Amino acid sequence: MTAAPEARGSAPYSVQNIKVVVASSDVQVREFTAAPDDEIPWHYHTRVTDWCYCLEGVVRAETRQTEGGAVSVQEINIGQSCRIDAGIIHRLTNAGTATCRYLLVQSGGRYDFHKL
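and the corresponding structure tokens:
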């Protein structure tokens, strides 16, 4: 298996650390470490569904149906998770004042990242 493009340093965002756990043509699992104010900016995936599992700290998942649409916010604490379906515009941020870690499981098709 090879590392996903973002794990090799070409991600369209910057977080403290990304550790690739699994990377294949249709599934990737990465552990993110995010400092306060780190974020994966607003984007969507064409076919990929995201599952975000909080390991440490607090992760904020924000979603919206359309660009500029109403934002739905979910704060994910240790042991909690959320699902973000393909096509949903979203971003993930560190919601706390300390480092957070989360596992991001992505599957459903070839990975793409459409930044807004």
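(Above: one complete record from the training split.) The CA atoms of residues 12 and 73 lie 22 Å apart.
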